[in-house]
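Box 3.1 A note on notation
Throughout this textbook, protein chains are presented in two layers. The first layer is the amino acid sequence; the second is a token string describing backbone geometry. Keep the layers aligned when reading.
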Amino acid sequence: MNYKYLNATGKLSYNMTNDYMFRMVLQRDKKTLINLICSLLHLKREQIKNVYIDNPVEPGKSMREKEYQMDIVVMLNNSVIINLEMQVLNYGNWPVRSLSYLSRKFNNVLRGKDYNTVMPVYHIGFLDFTLFEDHPEFFARYQVRNAKDNYLYTDKFNLYVIELNHTELATDEDKSYHTDTWARLFKAKTWEEIKMITKDNPSMNSTAEAIYVSNADEYIREECWLREERIAHEEYQKKQFEKLTKENASLTNENARLKELLEKNNIKF
């Protein structure tokens, strides 16, 4: 097959750490979606009978619409719910936020049905930052377990975290399922990087082509740009808040020291 991306050179307009591009590529290429899920859940291709995105968005659809969400809800074999999310900005609330998303999807028992019919759920977050600074890990899998002996409570409630900035911590198991390769592909900033990856991983050719076609779409590029502008604005606001909080704390401490000094010297106003 003649892939157009092979003729591309230089820097990508937007790579897959842009969550809008991430969504568009997974929607555009079903093979990418299947291969990614096989890698993350350690499945063989024949184990996937059918897979589809339950909340698709029309390519180029405006991010400004209030009901728009960036998480991707995937239905696997009509029996497993997978929530995929790309996150580049650290708001400091990922543990509780991801649990909130996961809990909503876990509440899937139909009215009148037994709770044992609940479908297994996975929330899989791709983070371009370190979640726990004192515990960096490339691919972490969290479940509900006994705090004393680690006995599994249920295998239907799963929270996965992939830290894209820590591929150097990938285990042999991660590498055998090419999870680290997916991370490098998502973060690739040039076509040369992508071609180096697909050279050794031809199954990712269709993903690279989907990235190329999506980058060539002016409407998708516009939404990717808007997304990055929004993130840049949020990052600025976050830094300003942190700055003001620090200044306020410093002022509070200074006032406390001044009050203590005045009281010590019996000075009253």
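The radius of gyration is 23 Å. The beta strands are 51-53, 72-76, 80-87, 121-127, 139-145, 152-163.
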